[in-house]
Amino acid sequence: MYLKTLTLKGFKSFANTVHMSLEPGVTCVVGPNGSGKSNVVDALAWVMGEQGAKNLRGGSMADVIFAGTKTKAPLGRAEVELTIDNTDGALPIEYSEVTISRTMFRSGGSEYAINGTPVRLLDIQELLSDTGMGRQMHVIVGQGQLDAILSASETERRAFIEEAAGVLKHRQRKDRALKK
Ligand code: ATP
Ligand code: MG
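== Chromosome partition protein Smc ==
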């Protein structure tokens, strides 16, 4: 199983449709600052079902829709399509190629599809969940995160580990309760 193609339409800085072909193995995206490299990574997280605006580096979910520039009007919808090669059958579906897509409208509302058939978010999550790609399964290390870990103090490093282990939220809850 590997990511085969990624198509962005009106997603963040990609006003015009951009189609990327990927190969098995490691893919590098290079380009000047602000050219949209991180937006490509955001698109991957988004099409796989990411629900947190902050994880997409935005204030609200609608921030993934092309917001316009001096010369180009804003768009009304964002769409991302990811085609996964499934010739090894890693995805539990009878297709050698699986395309998942997500569309979001500025007027509100989202649509998901698997191979062109409308589905629920849950169906996408279930499809990906046993493959190491599902929700919380793939790992996206954001820009600056490695630096932050390497240069963290002991207390900060402990917080990273607690967050990874899932205990941070309980501790924050306990701290809040003790303050009351
Ligand atoms: P760096 O090398 O600095 O990390 P990068 O290639 O990762 O840069 P991105 O962060 O992917 O760059 O892209 C940033 C650009 O995307 C900014 O110019 C920002 O204005 C633009 N952008 C983000 N969201 C939108 C949007 N909804 N509509 C239009 N442009 C957007
Ligand atoms: Mg970046």
